[in-house]
Amino acid sequence: xxxxxxxxxxxxxxxxxxxxxxxxxxxxxxxxxxxxxxxxxxxxxxxxxxxxxxxxxxxxxxxxxxxxxxxxxxxxxxxxxxxxxxxxxxxxxxxxxxxxxxxxxxxxxxxxxxxxxxxxxxxxxxxxxxxxxxxxxxxxxxxxxxxxxxxxxxxxxxxxxxxxxxxxxxxxxxxxxxxxxxxxxxxxxxxxxxxxxxxxxxxxxxxxxxxxxxxxxxxxxxxxxxxxxxxxxxxxxxxxxxxxxxxxxxxxxxxxxxxxxxxxxxxxxxxxxxxxxxxxxxxxxxxxxxxxxxxxxxxxxxxxxxxxxxxxxxxxxxxxxxxxxxxxxxxxxxxxxxxxxxxxxxxxxxxxxxxxxxxxxxxxxxxxxxxxxxxxxxxxxxxxxxxxxxxxxxxxxxxxxxxxxxxxxxxxxxxxxxxxxxxxxxxxxxxxxxxxxxxxxxxxxxxxxxxxxxxxxxxxxxxxxxxxxxxxxxxxxxxxxxxxxxxxxxxxxxxxxxxxxxxxxxxxxxxxxxxxxxxxxxxxxxxxxxxxxxxxxxxxxxxxxxxxxxxxxxxxxxxxxxxxxxxxxxxxxxxxxxxxxxxxxxxxxxxxxxxxxxxxxxxxxxxxxxxxxxxxxxxxxxxxxxxxxxxxxxxxxxxxxxxxxxxxxxxxxxxxxxxxxxxxxxxxxxxxxxxxxxxxxxxxxxxxxxxxxxxxxxxxxxxxxxxxxxxxxxxxxxxxxxxxxxxxxxxxxxxxxxxxxxxxxxxxxxxxxxxxxxxxxxxxxxxxxxxxxxxxxxxxxxx
Length: 783
Hints:
The protein is an alpha/beta fold.
């Protein structure tokens, strides 16, 4: 249940590694002093691009913390994250951090491309016919960053990853703060990390977005963006706890919000409509009036379309007060850190509030009539300010806005949200056994296999005709991941009888959970670049290589313009999407949210799982736990505020009563053999649902046939529920649909009630392959 009293959340430590140096203080001082650190890139071949510049990290000292990696390869994005995290935690105070129980620490990290370099290394070897390294593969997933951090510092609370492209780490920071407000953690390590690569340069180069000189946001002579790399990390903590432990209180995070443009895969809405809604909603959640905002750290990329659109969005969000507000772009001095942009820019915002100095926009030469705000050109400015905002806007039209206050400046905490219970009103399922929930139930009831033998392993694919659901125009430039998402989201909303109109679409959101992400598009884009060079980069494919591209397609083609995010907790990604959708709906950030769980298969994905040695070589369910059948799926579930669902007379499949998340903190690709983390997740889920173990009617297990992962779950269930626990394990026969596994089980649990089976609340488990566990409690209508 939500806490009855508002909880204040403060930042107690920051850390960063960027082109400005290896500390947050170097970042702040150099940005404050208008030092541009966008230089010729030295560690990548730069031939064939429109520029040779970037915000390259010069620091080469590895972090003190270790993680699982090949002996001949270190993943830069993980190194950056660990380095920044070490500084943030040290600045927070070792005594303070050690006094908070490990189970009460969360980790929430945003990234756009995560372990792209490790994936590229493995992919090159595969193309060359060499054996791939399983340890390389384990570093590719965005969730690997969160789990590496959790392991390095022994944090056993929620370990989450967010991948809303260039808004990812701003989204992560806001999400981390909400976990603390809701009582799911007492402290959280949050931020983002990104590393430069040839694939990234090729992508932005083919879009003709790169500037030959350091980026000049808002200046009339701007020519494009400059890419950057690095990491920013913040320690967030309950204010009362921070003061009790003697941790420094740097600033207070008041609120955040998300939105979708639903306009274009790469270009922002020219009138700033979606981004402006995010700013407005963030201020509302913070209890702040537009006139209180003195400074906006803007997204400010320096591209022709972004800068005027963001100027418009600032006016939408702040009204006429926008003309009285200072605005600046940190990217003009460090480059665009993509998924890590929000993390370093929020650190700059926090330091600006702390020191009462507005940092400048560098390289500004000439006023653009379409960009007519006060951009603090080329020189910092002292300014008394109590409230500041940091904005980030991304490919796919995903927007995030975060509101900060000077420590001690506000006597009242942010307002308590208008909480409501959450109903499930719509279902859709594309699986290897059919394209609707009824087909899924029938296959489960019959014990049918969801996969077939294919070159020595079992694989299941979804058979469907896209033309039966979407017009040729709506299918244009949409990959398989996007098709699954768009079609099932539309079907679920139709099943919920929830029609989107101009009046309600900004209150209906979409959260996508995907484990392996847009591999079809990533392969289609990367292979020609790897084999032929930057000139082979395809601008029609590149926008689909970001994890949140599918969510952007849903916003554009289905019309969900409310809260928008993409979460990537590996094989638990769909469960992560359901939990996030539940929170956003319960606290009135949305009237309804479509939780979409989706993963698709390619030859490279199958080969990667084969290299990991975890695929079934004999018929699933009879192989003694040697591995699982690998399938693809797209599942969408509509979560709606119960009061709204009842008011419109909606059919209710059930309610989501609560959830629990816990991490083993054993390291990348490892989990606790006794199932300690999963047991904690189940206990937390029961606690939030206010239920006892004996009240659970069915336990839908995450077990899929991999003995090393299944046995810990069995032990955890036995300890909590006894030897006669009502366990159901559909994935043993239906197969493992990667990130969609949890929602597949959720749909089956609700189908069971529909068929008069397995009465009572259901517990749905889902786990990543790195020991992050989710447990959800669903209950029949009226339970």
